[in-house]
Specification:
With 220 residues, the chain is an alpha+beta fold. It has one domain: 3-Layer(aba) Sandwich (L-fuculose-1-phosphate Aldolase). The chain has 7 helices and 8 strands, in the order αββββαβααβαββαα. The chain has an 8-stranded mixed sheet, with helices on both faces. A hairpin with a 5-residue loop joins strand 3 and strand 4. Helix 3 packs across helix 6 and helix 4 packs across helix 7. It is globular. It binds zinc ion (ZN). The site of zinc ion has 7 residues, from loops.
Length: 220
């Protein structure tokens, strides 16, 4: 099987996404790219996450053509392709329908910087891409434009897209985005205006996260 390790990893993270409750039923999709061959491993269209095997993860090229695999690739492959084409720093993409973030997407409401975590991962609010029909190239274009250099965007009337250097980083962005959306929604439901972090603090937290958080090597 071509790119067996990458397909196995995509499968593992797709199942983690599902088990974490970031998507329900057969919605959502996950991919990773091999930059040397410009080959993308992506979850198949409309299959039960619990029943997937590495062979079900389809390999496609940057035109969306199937390179290897017997399954039809995710119907939202153009979203993934557009992100890989415009973001050389990104090697993994998650598209979820996580509940709280999708509720904000349905309201066209970005996630403001009300938590240190949002400042750290995104360096600013998590934006909302305007509505576009799923499965179309425009759906990818509006997501890319809204994301800019950020790791996530909400997709109006639809869901969420998250990206990262690898599957683990992109998965954690999806988890953190949903958590931040949940807390913001609770603050809205409490009828109070959550306090925004001040503008000087946001880039400092973003820089700390990018360079000194977790097991990244310490910068001198
Ligand atoms: Zn979707």
């Amino acid at each position: 099987m071509l790119l067996q390790e990458m397909r196995t990893d995509v499968l593992r993270y797709a199942q983690r996404m599902y088990k974490a409750g970031l998507t329900v039923g057969v919605s959502g999709n996950v991919s990773a790219i091999d930059r040397e061959s410009n080959t993308i491993a992506i979850t198949p269209s409309g299959m039960d996450y619990d029943e997937l095997t590495p062979e079900d993860i389809t390999l496609i090229d940057l035109e969306g053509q199937v390179v290897d695999g017997t399954r039809r690739p995710s119907s939202e492959k153009m979203l993934h392709i557009k992100i890989y084409q415009s973001r050389p720093d990104v090697n993994a993409v998650f598209h979820t329908h996580s509940t709280y973030a999708t509720a904000l997407a349905a309201m066209g409401e970005p996630i403001p910087v009300i938590l240190a975590e949002v400042a750290a991962i995104a360096g600013g609010p998590i934006p909302v891409a305007p509505y576009a029909r799923f499965g179309t190239p425009e759906f990818g274009d509006v997501a890319v434009a809204a994301m800019g250099d950020k790791p996530a965007a909400l997709l109006q009337n639809h869901g969420v897209v998250c990206a990262g250097k690898d599957l683990q980083k992109a998965f954690l962005i999806a988890v953190d985005t949903e958590e931040a959306a949940k807390i913001y929604m609770f603050s809205l439901m409490a009828g109070k205006r959550a306090i925004r972090l001040n503008d000087e603090e946001i880039p400092v937290l973003h820089e700390i996260y990018a360079t000194r958080y977790g097991q990244n090597p310490l910068k001198p």
